[in-house]
C-alpha cells in the first residue's frame, strides 16, 4: 500500500463568516494528479469530513485527494428544511453563489500550491455527491466564477489567487443536481438556494444549472445515479448526459436499478456519504445499466472512458481517472 501524507485543516480562504478549509491526502509517488471532492448535504448540511475513505482511495488510485469546505446555505426558520440544519456545524455560511465561489477558490488555491504539496496542478478532476455533485458539475462546465451568468454577476468576487485557473480536466458526479429548472417547488431547499421560486427567478435557476453551460469544450464526465432516487431524480443525470452527447463530449452514465439516494435501498436507509462507496463495494453485482457517449474525429479510433465497464464502484472511478487525468 502506498504511504499517504495527510494535511488537515488547511485554510485556503478567509471569508467574512470564517475560514474556509480543506483536507489533503497525497500519495508518496511522483507528482500524482489531484481529485477535488465536494461533499453533499443539500447545500446546508455536513462538512468536508463527509467523504468516502480518502486515505484508502488516494492510495488505490494513486491520486492526491482534497476534500474542500464551502460556505453552506444560511437557513431561514422554516419547518420544511430546518431539520437538515445543524447549529453545531462550524462551517461558515452564506448564500448562493458563495458555495460555487468557494469551490472554484479551492481549486485555484490547490493549483497554486501544487508544488508545495507534491501533486500535478494541470491534472485535476472534480468529484461531488448530491449537492456536491451539482457544484462539481458546475465547476466542470463553468471555467471561471465570473462566467456563471448575469443573474449572479454582482454576487461574484475572486479574491483567492485570482490569477490561477479554476478549470478541471474531468468530473465525477454521484447523483448530482444538474438542472434546477426541473423543480417548480415553492418550498424546499432549492427556492431557498435561489432566493425564491423559479417563477420569480428563471434566470437564476437556469444559470445555476450545470446543464445550461455545457459546450464542446466541457471536460469528460462520469455520472452515477440510482434509478429510484427520491431526493435527486435520475432525470438530472440523464439530461446532463444527453446534453454532453449533443455537444460532442465524451461521457458515461451508470444507472443503478432499485437504488435510492446515497445508494440506499429506501429513502429511510439514506446514510452518510462516508459509507456510500462501501455500499457499492458490498454489492458489486447490483443490477445496473451503462450508457456511453464516445465521440470520434474522422480518421481516429474510439477512445472510450472506461476500459471494460466494471460494476459501479471504486474500480469505475479508477479507470475513469486513468483515462482522463493520468
TrEMBL record:
InterPro entries: AB_hydrolase_fold (IPR029058), BD-FAE-like_dom (IPR049492), GDXG_lipolytic_enzyme (IPR050300). Keywords: Hydrolase. The keyword Hydrolase applies. GO terms for molecular function: hydrolase activity. The keyword Phosphoprotein does not apply. It comes from the Archaea. Residues 22-74, 95-242 form the BD-FAE-like domain. PANTHER family: AB HYDROLASE SUPERFAMILY PROTEIN C4A8.06C, ALPHA_BETA HYDROLASE. This is Alpha/beta hydrolase. It comes from Halocatena pleomorpha.
Amino acid at each position: 500500500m502506498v504511504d499517504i501524507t495527510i494535511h488537515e485543516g488547511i485554510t485556503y480562504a478567509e471569508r467574512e463568516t470564517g475560514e474556509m478549509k480543506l483536507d489533503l491526502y497525497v500519495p508518496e509517488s511522483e507528482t500524482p494528479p489531484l481529485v477535488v471532492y465536494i461533499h453533499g448535504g443539500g447545500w446546508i448540511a455536513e462538512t468536508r469530513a463527509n467523504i468516502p475513505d480518502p486515505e484508502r482511495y488516494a492510495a488505490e488510485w494513486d491520486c492526491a485527494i482534497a476534500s474542500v469546505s464551502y460556505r453552506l446555505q444560511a437557513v431561514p426558520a422554516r419547518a420544511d428544511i430546518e431539520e437538515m440544519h445543524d447549529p453545531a456545524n462550524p462551517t461558515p455560511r452564506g448564500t448562493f453563489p458563495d458555495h460555487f465561489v468557494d469551490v472554484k477558490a479551492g481549486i485555484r488555491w490547490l493549483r497554486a500550491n501544487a508544488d508545495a504539496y507534491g501533486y500535478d496542478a494541470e491534472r485535476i478532476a472534480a468529484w461531488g455527491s448530491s449537492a456536491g455533485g451539482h457544484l462539481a458539475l458546475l465547476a466542470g462546465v463553468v471555467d471561471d466564477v465570473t462566467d456563471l451568468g448575469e443573474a449572479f454577476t454582482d454576487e461574484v468576487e475572486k479574491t483567492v489567487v485570482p490569477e490561477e485557473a479554476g478549470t478541471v480536466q474531468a468530473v465525477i458526479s454521484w447523483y448530482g443536481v444538474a438542472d434546477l429548472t426541473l423543480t417548480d417547488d415553492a418550498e424546499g431547499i432549492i427556492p431557498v438556494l435561489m432566493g425564491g421560486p423559479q417563477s420569480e427567478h428563471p434566470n437564476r435557476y437556469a444559470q445555476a444549472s450545470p446543464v445550461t453551460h455545457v459546450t464542446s469544450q466541457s471536460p469528460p464526465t462520469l455520472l452515477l445515479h440510482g434509478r429510484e432516487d427520491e431526493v435527486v431524480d435520475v432525470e438530472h443525470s440523464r439530461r446532463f448526459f444527453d446534453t454532453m452527447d449533443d455537444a460532442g463530449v465524451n461521457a458515461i452514465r451508470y444507472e443503478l436499478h432499485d437504488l435510492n439516494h446515497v445508494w440506499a435501498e429506501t429513502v429511510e436507509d439514506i446514510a452518510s456519504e462516508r459509507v456510500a462507496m462501501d455500499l457499492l463495494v458490498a454489492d458489486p453485482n447490483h443490477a445496473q445499466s451503462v450508457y456511453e457517449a464516445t465521440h470520434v474525429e474522422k480518421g481516429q479510433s474510439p477512445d472510450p472512458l472506461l476500459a471494460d465497464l466494471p460494476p459501479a464502484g471504486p474500480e469505475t472511478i479508477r479507470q475513469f481517472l486513468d483515462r482522463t487525468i493520468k
